[in-house]
């Protein structure tokens, strides 16, 4: 798709009391909602990342998402709703465990896989008989969906494979001229996409780790499995977004190095040195704890810290912006540290591994 669309930008201040109710009637939201009802594609903020939304009941509308993103059509989309009343439009059954999860985590960064209705556009589910649904915890998103009056299918608002956008500027960098509009509601909060859990099977299965951890889920509904793809690679037919293809990748070649601190630093240094010998501009994805070391390293051209190891929430929040910043610095070869897979670390490592295209060295 060529950049031949005039992209309208609506700036919305969501820092108001009773934000959802007030925003729903504000001029910018009303206008953006009209675009959605007319089957245009509109980007908007959620508490995780910016999404690229379209009417989930219309294949014509959803096609515009795939065209703008350059996204493979076998990659299903998540449907966003503003109220539980909208569930009857998109799902034919709500298992008891799904109800428990909704009560505990909605609105919030949790997508629940449910049996779909025939009203959901076939492109949304990539031909599957199930659909991923979530209620975002962001006043702008909730107001926009409510004002549109239809459920909204929305993947992340970036070109396919690129780091997900956490600001409107990121969206415009990728999609200006490709989408009808962008609702600018400021920077997002969580920074990583929602956790996806399939409750159509027993025990339920996490298909994508995200802002809600496995441990949190199990506190509510008991044992939860992890999809085998976390260990065995992508599935041939993905059942949820992010299960197939390289995602979140900077333009430069990226590698992760796993192991104990000293061997990791030695290995990363060797890789940087070799890249420099081949004339490549190098980058290091560092932490607060290691940033000074890499800043002083002669073969590290660009050193960007993603946050402290002791605060994985900070790492998750900053990860995509840092990956995009490597492109701003024209880094051609990037090495990064790994993180514990406990709790939120599972989601952080899932995104890093996909950003690196599975390229991991063990020190």
UniProtKB/TrEMBL annotation:
Tagged with keyword Cytoplasm: yes
Keywords per UniProt: ATP-binding, Cytoplasm, Nucleotide-binding, Nucleotidyltransferase, Transferase, tRNA processing
Domain YrdC-like: 26-212
Keyword match Aminoacyl-tRNA synthetase: no
EC category name: transferase
EC number(s) given by UniProt: 2.7.7.87
Reactions accelerated catalytically: L-threonine + hydrogencarbonate + ATP = L-threonylcarbamoyladenylate + diphosphate + H2O
Domain of life: Bacteria
Protein location: Cytoplasm
Chief site of localization: cytoplasm
InterPro entries per UniProt: DHBP_synth_RibB-like_a/b_dom (IPR017945), Sua5-like_dom (IPR006070), Sua5/YwlC_C (IPR038385), Sua5_C (IPR005145), T(6)A37_SUA5 (IPR010923), TC-AMP_synthase_SUA5 (IPR050156)
Xref: PANTHER family: SUA5, THREONYLCARBAMOYL-AMP SYNTHASE
Family affiliation: Belongs to the SUA5 family.
Known role: Required for the formation of a threonylcarbamoyl group on adenosine at position 37 (t(6)A37) in tRNAs that read codons beginning with adenine.
Protein name as annotated: Threonylcarbamoyl-AMP synthase
């Amino acid at each position: 798709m060529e950049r031949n669309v005039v992209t309208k930008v609506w700036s919305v201040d969501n820092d108001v009391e009773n934000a959802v109710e007030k925003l729903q009637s504000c001029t910018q939201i009303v206008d953006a909602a009209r675009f959605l009802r007319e089957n245009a594609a509109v980007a908007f903020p959620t508490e995780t990342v910016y999404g690229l939304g379209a009417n989930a009941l219309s294949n014509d509308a959803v096609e515009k998402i795939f065209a703008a993103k350059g996204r493979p059509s076998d990659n299903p989309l998540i449907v966003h709703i503003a109220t539980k009343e909208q569930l009857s439009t998109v799902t034919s059954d709500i298992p008891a465990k799904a109800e428990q999860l909704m009560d505990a985590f909605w609105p919030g960064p949790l997508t629940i896989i449910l049996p779909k209705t025939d009203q959901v556009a076939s492109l949304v589910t990539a031909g599957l008989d199930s659909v991923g649904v979530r209620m975002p915890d962001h006043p702008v998103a909730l107001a926009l969906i409510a004002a549109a009056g239809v459920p909204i299918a929305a993947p992340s608002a970036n070109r396919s494979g690129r780091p997900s956008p956490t600001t409107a500027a990121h969206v415009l960098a990728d999609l200006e001229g490709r989408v009808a509009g962008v609702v600018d509601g400021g920077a997002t909060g969580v920074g990583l996409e929602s956790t996806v859990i399939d409750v159509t099977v027993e025990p339920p299965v996490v298909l994508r780790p995200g802002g809600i951890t496995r441990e949190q889920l199990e506190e509510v509904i008991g044992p939860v499995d992890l999809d085998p793809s976390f260990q065995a690679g992508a599935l041939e037919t993905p059942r949820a977004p992010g299960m197939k293809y390289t995602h979140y990748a900077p333009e430069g070649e990226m590698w992760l190095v796993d192991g104990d601190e000293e061997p990791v630093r030695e290995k990363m240094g060797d890789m940087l040195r070799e890249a420099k010998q081949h004339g490549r501009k190098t980058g290091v994805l560092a932490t607060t704890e290691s940033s000074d070391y890499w800043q002083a390293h002669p073969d590290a051209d660009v050193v960007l810290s993603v946050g402290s190891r002791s605060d994985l929430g900070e790492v998750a929040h900053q990860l995509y912006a840092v990956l995009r910043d490597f492109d701003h610095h024209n880094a051609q070869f990037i090495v990064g540290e790994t993180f514990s897979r406990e709790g939120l670390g599972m989601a952080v490592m899932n995104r890093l591994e996909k950003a690196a295209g599975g390229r991991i060295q063990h020190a």
